[in-house]
Design goal:
Blueprint (H helix, E strand, L loop, with lengths): L25 H14 L5 H11 L5 H13 L4 H41 L6 H25 L10 H17 L4 H25 L6
Helix pairs in contact: 1-4, 3-4, 6-7
Length: about 210
Amino acid sequence: MPPSENSPALPEPEVQSPSLPRPASLTALFWAISGIALQGFGGVLAVVQRELVEKKQWLSTEEFVEDWAVSQIMPGPNVVNLALIIGDRYFGWRGALAALAGMLTFPLLVVMALTIGLAGIGHIPAVQGALRGMGAVSAGLIAGTGIRLVPALRSNAMGTLACALIAASVFIAIAFLRVPLAWTLLGIGLPAFFWALHRIRALAATPQGHP
């Protein structure tokens, strides 16, 4: 029977947001990471960003920047750390192991095959020139990916100006002053950490709708 006018109104059903794309299984995660690893000759950053953010959309640009930043300050290869983070996020420790296996298995086989194949021809000038050319291409891919990720800094809690100053300081310290990475992290990364923490707390304490 229809509700009377005095009966309490029923709450409206909540509208669930559509689920974000994610790997369907451990096998899908393994093969996806393997495909990324096999494309990453000389530098996998550009491939990871294109595959995970643009194609599969497992990560937003902001999430990718944050996860990549964590991967860089952790010990070990950056891309391996990122694979562990992504695998653990979706499937726990099993996902981390599957992602790690996908990142290392086929590249290890390729490296072994190339080592055997180049053992007798590595001294040839044409081969050395080809390797140098691949290094230049890899540097260009990494630089291009970095430029594409710049818009994600607009939503960073530290602010665009602070991010730009920190990035410039790190570049100058490493590229020109040759400061070791550990000292760069302590001298620039530690103050940046505390500044980000201060900004996050300030934004959390700001009433919504007020600057």
